[in-house]
Amino acid sequence: MSPIMFGEHHFLPLVLINLLGLAGILIWHIQGRRRPTARLVVQILFFCCMSLVLWLAGISPYHFDYDELQDGGILLAKSARILWWLHLAWTMIGFLHIYLTLNRRPQEAHLLQDLIVGIVYLGVALSVIGFVFGAPVGPLIATSGIVVVIIGLALQNTLADVFSGIALALGHAYVIGDWIQLADGTEGRVVETNWRSTNLLSGGYNVVVLPNSVLAKQGVTNRSRPDESHQISLTIRISAIHKPRLVEEVMLAVLQGCERIVMNPPPVVALKTIDAIAIEVELFFRVASAAGRMSAQNEIIDLIYEHCRANGISLAMPAQSLVCPPIGEQKEQATLRAISSGAL
Fold first, then answer.
1. Is 213 in contact with 160 (CB distance < 8 Å)?
2. Listed residue (260, 313, 308) closest to 287, CA to CA
């Protein structure tokens, strides 16, 4: 009988599993992150080969045979099982990456992806500790739970941002590239989301960093859904000496002559009010994206000036700029109106 007492029928399979595991790690790193599909194929291939060798040799990754625990076989047995669990984790994470890539959501699901990857690695680490090294996992989990509670109390604000970010990612309130507006008026295009904050690129090309907990507490308006078009309203005051129909026709010509607005749905002219001073008109039009509001509004104002000048239409003074006569003159005018009405 051979002097190697850890089981000859397990020696070659354990060596082969170790070789396959190390070769898989080497090729996995050679592939690089730019080829996720090729890396997944390598991971699946080597994991299946290692699992097949385990099954054919009757080796369980969950417990040791007594033959393996003699002499130096323990090193081969433990390393083989560690490599098998490691390849299992990489295979699961590879499927996750491919799923997110095929669904074209690698950026918006970044937080959820990191969370799942962390859970996979934590599960594999506990499995290695329990099944490979035979350590009791229960007391370890209980001790780590106490540590987690202490850390959680010390990092309440940070954890609030983390869980708020996960909730926002699961709720699909917005994705990378969406233009959003908060209840306090802050708005911009989402350029990055991470565990703690969401970064917006404002119309002035400034990056606004918003904690995820702030976004979760405020109302968020997604101006990129159902499409990127954005409605704008502009109020104009026209002198009341002009006919309302003429004012409506001129304002409609202004909107139809603008090249920076969307014509479907068509823009609308609304005559809101009329008094002795002015006709108040509100223009409703849409732009292709929220980022084009300023240029479109500038063109509309320029066209209003040109069309009003060409048609002899004069603008009215703002309501708040009307000058009130002194109190003495007001009383005198009121007395004259009373006398006039009495005479009539």
1. yes
2. 260
